[in-house]
Design brief:
alpha+beta; 7 strands
Length: about 160
Amino acid sequence: MRRFLYLSLIDRLKQLTDKAGEPVIKTFDLWNKQVEFIEKEEVFDTPAVFIEFMPIKWNTLGAGAQRTDATIRLHIITHWDGSTRDGSQFQQQSLDRFDLLDRIDHHLFNIMGSDGRTEFNMFRRTGNSTNHNHEELVEDISDYTCMVMDNVKKV
């Protein structure tokens, strides 16, 4: 289930492109506190999206089917371009991160998928956290919840 959701999210986010048709997001990976351990971490390009699966509690429906409302947290890492202070020469460029966050939120709204064993739908944004304490890299967080059905009998 997690593999399918992870790859589905990456495939969907790769569809976000700039005006030249190039993918906007440069790095995808599972979350492993990359920003906290930046000196030890493998170098990555920004913008980056790191995917974190929050704890999941399953409900058994019978006949091998299970259902959950899964929460997935995206850690969206961008490079800090300078002050957003009114009048700053960097204001517009630095505020571009908010445009990216909005684009991601809108692009993921209501996505769904199925691989014959697992299906998910009702993918909805449920929370955001804006980073106000950063250095050269900014980590903003977006939470999403989706309904997942998994047939554990199908292999």
